[in-house]
Amino acid sequence: MSNESLANLMTETRRFAPPAEVAAGANVTAAAYEAAAEDRLGYWAEQARRLSWEREPTETLDWSNPPFAKWFADGKLNVAYNCVDRHVEAGNGDRVAIHFEGEPGDSRAITYAELQREVSQAANALGELGVATGDRVAIYMPMIPEAVVAMLACARIGAPHSVVFGAFSADALATRIEDADARVVITADGGYRRGAPSALKPAVDEALTRPGAANVRNVLVVRRTGQDIPWTSGRDVWWHEAVGRQSEEHTPEAFDAEHPLFILYTSGTTGKPKGILHTTGGYLTQVAYTHHAVFDLKPETDVYWCTADIGWVTGHSYIVYGPLANGATEVLYEGTPNTPHNGRWWEIVEKYGVTLLYTAPTAIRTCMKWGDDIPARFDLSSLRILGSVGEPINPEAWVWYRKHIGGDRTPVVDTWWQTETGAMMISPLPGVTLAKPGSAQTPLPGISATVVDDDGNEVANGSGGYLTLTEPWPSMLRTIWGDDQRFLDTYWSRFEGRYFAGDGAKKDEDGDIWLLGRVDDVMLVSGHNISTTEVESALVSHPRIAEAAVVGATDPQTTQAICAFVILRGGAPQEEGLVEELRAHVSKELGPIAKPKRILAVEELPKTRSGKIMRRLLRDVAENRELGDVTTLTDPAVMDLIQSKLPSAPSED
Ligand code: ATP
Ligand code: MG
Questions:
Q1: Which ligand neighbours the alpha carbon of 420 most closely?
Q2: S-S: 550 plus which of 264, 302, 519, 535, CB 3.0-4.6 Å?
Q3: Strands 479-480 and 499-507
Q4: Relative to the CA of 427, which ligand 1 atom is closest?
Q5: Is the CB of 266 under 6 A from ligand 1?
Q6: Measured from the CB, is residue 518 less than 6 Å from ligand 1?
Q7: Nearest CA to ligand 1 atom 31
Q8: Rounded distance, CA 254 to CA 260, Å?
Q9: Could you give the percent of the chain with pLDDT greater than 70?
Q10: AMP-binding enzyme C-terminal domain: from which residue to which, for each copy (predicted)?
């Protein structure tokens, strides 16, 4: 990426200091950066002591065969013991682990002692079904407590899980079952979504008709909705029967630190999803540490809520493993943010007195679109720290989040990380960092990241390039399941000895990092590199624009032409001259070169189930190509809608 690229995101000048009380009581202070810089491995060895090891590791990192890392290799531990049993043994069995809120309004509080009993029963049931250490288990569930129990039960017996997002199609499920060669599938009859039961089990039945899924012996089915479902006797077993009759005692076995914990497929914004493999000791160390540091968790008093789905990595690391390893009390919500009304999330924050909230920019922008008056109806004064993950958060949304959700009081932590990194990598610390809206800012203590140019040289402050991670980290992916070569090619071949994240980034004059979106999304217009994130951010700063997605489409004159898809605030109709006004607005914000050639108002944008915009599909549309893989899209019909609009696109000069 060239340096002339427009540096205008960084012209955002608002700054927010940590509130005095957060700074005064912070779990992690500025001293951590120094300690980690002085002795990085020593720092991680110290963080590993947050966990209970059956055998303490004596070795921190084995990097003798890069990029295949081993962390804490001679240590042994059990992840479920760390997330559950040890809190009970420490006398916190009565602490609520999970406040479950079902979409229809049913709720259930599960203490650590109850969680221990349920996880033990589920582990016993898996054993009875013949699941042995190392066997893979596919989990295809709604957001109900049994999903968490199932993951922990797998971890407890050393059976790596592969969680497949509950709204993926039978096809997507089948390919993931096949790729991981899963032996058992854990599912539910259905879950509640948008006010109605939504079936899951039929998709499992369909997936299991595919030849690649022939090795699945059993399907363990949670009864959630009570709806009628097809049943294959001999293969299908009810959770409440098979798990319910088990002993509530189960002795956890300690596994090697490098024992596989789970496989998780990336969201597929850039191509065919990759089966990312995470292991035990390093992963748990970093998710526990980062949750403690970045959310400043006080397990005795905080109520934490991460709105992600367990089907993606944020759900793994920051609903299940990080918070539970730390003994947190957390909310688990089954449904959508607007069922039965647009204030449902804020009602939940009020009901449980949520203090720490972790969500995604797409959700924040949606709430902005619904209006400030909605959160204003609820008491959100319990909130202490707000987090964001999944996409670059544009400064407008960041400031709105802090103001309308955080009462103009709370720190906002913009956390950059990936399925591959397993845990947060670049983020402010809420009690330390002078926050800059729109920037993830600084690598966390113990993490080494920088921005490099095409030749791999670190760029100067004020310049842009590629985000790379320059040292191994504990929760790094160990490989792509079954495909070491793809692991090497995708992440380790672009820059010698460094991990290439696939994201573009800039360093500002202070050396803070601003994420610019995927490198594949960067546009080349008349010799200038322009990031889609920057143009989107400029569009969204216009009062009429609620959301925007920008792509570069092949253009004979300018190499690529900027093509913007926008959702109008307050909906259609689109007023005369709006397109011209928007183009002028972008030109003013970023310079004439960044002016979109085409602007198309749409009702919806194509998003993955984790809420990310699939720009590659919009690029296919803008270039009149056949659409690429749409299997991880929330709603493939969106693409038909957008395509049908294209010929009459209001555009350009
Ligand atoms: P695939 O790799 O299959 O294309 P994906 O990259 O969307 O899918 P994830 O691992 O869920 O799958 O997402 C990680 C990516 O999300 C990062 O590489 C980055 O592009 C984006 N991202 C996550 N958090 C942030 C953040 N705080 N700021 C900017 N971008 C972010
Ligand atoms: Mg990715």
A1: 1
A2: 535
A3: unpaired
A4: 27
A5: yes
A6: yes
A7: 391
A8: 13
A9: 96
A10: 534-612
The reply to whether 417 sits in an annotated binding site is: yes
From 391, 439, 613, 614, the mutation candidate for ligand 1 (largest count of ligand atoms within 8 A of CB) is 391
Cα 443 from Cα 426, distance rounded (Å): 4
- Tokens read off for 597: 């050639």
Whose tokens are 């920008």? That residue is 550
Nearest-CA residue for ligand 1 atom 13 is: 418
Return the residue whose CA atom lies nearest to atom 19 of ligand 1: 391
Nearest CA, atom 3, ligand 1: 268
What does the pLDDT read at residue 651?
Answer: 41
Largest CA distance in the chain: 73
Q: In whole numbers, what is the pLDDT of the chain averaged over residues? A: 93
Domains of the chain as residue ranges with CATH: 16-445+491-499 (3.40.50.12780), 526-644 (3.30.300.30)
Helix (H, G, I), strand (E, B) or coil at 451: strand
Task: For 216-268, write each residue's pLDDT tens digit.
Answer: 999 999 999 999 999 999 999 999 999 999 999 999 999 999 999 999 998 77
The one-character DSSP state at 474 is T
Say whether 251 counts as a known binding-site residue: no
The C-alpha atoms of residue 198 and residue 216 are separated, in whole angstroms, by: 23
Q: Tell me which amino acid residue 323 is.
A: P
Say what the pLDDT of residue 448 is.
98
Report which ligand 1 atom has the smallest distance to the Cα of 415. Answer: 27
SS3 state of residue 271: coil
Q: What is the residue type of 518?
A: R
How far does the centroid of ligand 1 lie from the alpha carbon of residue 477, in Å?
A: 14
Write down the pTM of the prediction: 0.92
DSSP-derived secondary structure for 553-569:
EEETTTEEEEEEEEEET
For residue range 449-460, list pLDDT tens digits in order: 999 999 999 999
pLDDT band at 629 (very low <50, low <70, confident <90, very high): confident
Contacts for 287 with CB less than 8 Å, ≥ 6 apart: 317, 318, 321, 322, 325, 422, 423, 475
According to the annotation, is 305 in a ligand binding site? Answer: no
Return the bridge partners of 548, or none. Answer: 566
Q: Which residues pair with 545 in a beta bridge?
A: 568
In the block, which residue shows the tokens 């947050």? 50
Q: How far is the CA of 417 from the centre of ligand 1 (A)?
A: 7
- Measured CA to CA, the distance from residue 304 to residue 320 in angstroms comes to 12
Give tens-digit pLDDT for 499-546: 999 999 999 999 999 998 888 888 889 888 888 988 999 999 999 999
Q: What's the Cα-to-Cα distance from 553 to each of 150, 525, 556, 615, rounded to whole Å?
A: 45, 10, 10, 11
